[in-house]
Amino acid sequence: ASDLILDMRSLPFYTAAADGNKGAGYYNGKSFFDLGSATESPELVYALYFNRDMTEADGAEELYAAARDGSFTFDYFLAFAESVAVSSDEYALSVGGVHDGAAFLGDIAAIRGGIDFVSGKSGGYPQISYSPSALEAVDTLVGLLHEANVYVPSAPATDAQDAPTAKTGAEMFADGKSLFHMGTLSEMSSIYNKKTAWGVLPLPTLNGEAYATASHDRGVLCVSANNSRPDAMGVLLPALDAASGEWIDGEYAAYCAENYIRDNDSFHMIKKILAEEIYADFSYLHYGNCKNLDAATFGAFRDAVLTGSTPSESINAVLKDVNKALKKIKY
Prior knowledge:
40% of the residues lie in helices and 8% in strands. The protein contains twelve helices and seven strands. The strands form two sheets. A five-stranded mixed sheet has the order 5-4-6-3-7. The longest helix is centred in the C-terminal third of the chain and has 30 residues, at 230-259. It starts with 25 loop residues before the first strand and ends in a 5-residue tail after the last helix.
């Protein structure tokens, strides 16, 4: 990669934004791409929608209050979901996307539980080193989510003629069939004019601490190694980040208020969501270059949500070999 892409840290006037994104842009002291505000899309950030029709009369205000004061934890969320009676064809929670998309619930649990998949420090090689207490807590959480009344669309059929007709999580929520829905902010455009009355909340956290929020995808910015104006690039990239951050988030929230959302509290919740750090991780960007990197990181949590496996057991089975392989990735 060094023959094709410039080490961002060699640019004049440039401070690598990857420091604030779990070191995802670093490898052995070099950074080949930028993960600043200019690479974020508000529409791809995850939020928690709730069905106002299925809650009690004061349920919406209770949820908003918990989100405002920091008490909106997974324990609170699961207890609230359990307290609301649903019929046999309804669900406590649906998740955005189809079958594979629903597995992203595992990523959400880990990220909002404070798990850092890969610790990429600015001066060395990326390594996987989980906090034992955090991993144990998320082990418990994904087990609870697996047992919860969650709508997961059918897995895709191998024969195209037998393609599943199951609805997506967003469609189920729009039809009034789920109490909560975890999905991207972009899904507002597909549910705003449906029969379900809804509101928006930040994702719950494990213990009330303000961890990063989850995003379904993330672009990067890089500079060609034969660029004739590295000085201009060093000025331009920080300027793009500075211009993009608060301005885009504020304009997006205002756009949602004008076109989609139905109450003032949801508008403030969207602003709260977008004010959080957007999680980026080395494993999302490099799992294709390192055998079993997904199995030692996000893949373990996704499998756990769908199958009931224990993430720490799956991770420990491959962790040593993956950490060795991370040092051999060639740039």
